[in-house]
Write a structure and sequence with these properties.
Elements (H helix, E strand, L loop, with lengths): L8 H19 L6 E3 L9 H10 L6 E5 H6 L4 H7 L4 E6 L1 E2 L1 H9 L4 H6 L3 E2 L8 H11 L4 E4 L11 H16 L2
Parallel strand pairs: 1-2, 2-3, 3-6
Antiparallel strand pairs: 4-5
């Protein structure tokens, strides 16, 4: 699925210049910002992520891997974690409904409509292989932060509290067990 707008070379260069500038400002305060490749944005697909990681020095930009957005964009989150293990400082655990993803790809549904169709679901109810993610995190010695996240549309039929409770139970019983 390629529903995100791609930047021209000139637009990409301007975005990278801006991000390097952000990194330089943050470095003055001992902070390294974190880039989050995100569905529906200018850094969504693997080629864009790889290009951004080449264009942005590790001293100026670390990486947040979002398991759901990786799968949404056709990436294996474990492979991304291994490739950029030295730059991954933060994670978003997110799961994705395989049936909604398949339908979204088949119809070229845009990201925000897919969210309204409940493409993201409580952890453990989708197609993200959290056993493999857990093992990969152990293998790379990840010591950073993880946020459990579920993108939802307030108008869609979902119950955020119930979803959060289900995700929490999954984490407690599966990921940190």
């Amino acid at each position: 699925m390629e529903t995100a707008t791609r930047l021209s070379d000139e637009q990409w260069d301007a975005m990278m210049e801006t991000l390097r500038g952000v990194g330089e400002i943050c470095a003055e305060y001992g902070i390294t910002p974190t880039l989050h490749a995100h569905a529906g944005t200018f850094i969504e697909y693997r080629d864009e992520l790889d290009k951004a990681m080449r264009d942005l020095p590790p001293s100026l930009m670390s990486l947040c891997v979002d398991t759901g957005h990786c799968v949404y964009a056709g990436m294996d989150p474990c492979e991304v974690l291994r490739t950029y293990s030295d730059r991954v400082k933060y994670l978003h655990f997110k799961d994705i409904n395989a049936d909604v993803l398949k339908a979204s790809v088949a119809t070229d549904t845009d990201f925000y409509t897919a969210i309204g169709n409940n493409i993201f679901c409580p952890l453990g109810q989708g197609c993200v292989d959290f056993d493999a993610v857990r093992q990969t995190l152990i293998e790379i010695g990840f010591k950073g932060w993880v946020t459990v996240e579920q993108d939802t549309d307030p108008a869609a039929k979902s119950d955020a509290r119930t979803d959060a409770e289900q995700s929490r139970m999954f984490i407690e019983q599966t990921v940190i067990a």
